[in-house]
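Subgroup meeting minutes
Present: P.N., E.W., G.H.
Scribe: E.W.

1. P.N. recapped why we're keeping a running log of single-chain structure predictions: easier to compare across weeks, and new members can see raw inputs and outputs side by side.
2. G.H. added today's entry (189 aa).
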Amino acid sequence: MGRVPRGPATAPLAYHPGLDSMPRRRFLPDSTMVIAYFAPRGGGLALDVGGAPHPAGSTTADALAWNADDEELVVRGHLAVPAAETPVSATLVLHERGGATYEVIAMLEAGPDRLGYTAAVPLTRAFVDDPLPRGTWAAHLVLGFAGMHRDLLVFAPADPVELHVRRRLVPVRVTTARAPEPLTISVGR
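Output recorded in log:
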């Protein structure tokens, strides 16, 4: 029989199958929001205090494709998410180095043990929104769970995209990062 140490003992907190891994939101007495969850990579317990937006994990896009009919860059990927933890919404949020953001709604497709997402980023013309402006944009997938959001940094797939599109009759170069880098979309650079 092993010895039991005297005094305080510490143990790493990590996700184990069977534990509820849904994010939990609580408020401190001064109304500061605290969200506790198990991080997707490594499974360690993570705490977000104060609601400051920052990535709460990461995911790798499965593929990038050019949709010539709608002149959109399509980002596809999946997450290993149990059906009980399926988010209710997803948005691909692109952050530009100067602080600007650009958002597109991502379609979700739930499977028995994974969640697929597809987002189409307009590059030349758009009926509802303006096309993605010039600049270098970092991709984040924001998942919505009943009043909470989880921001995942998106990593680039193995095959990048490089193409030229026409904006007001002027050719504009569009490129994306290559794995294992975070996914960035450069327009006009």
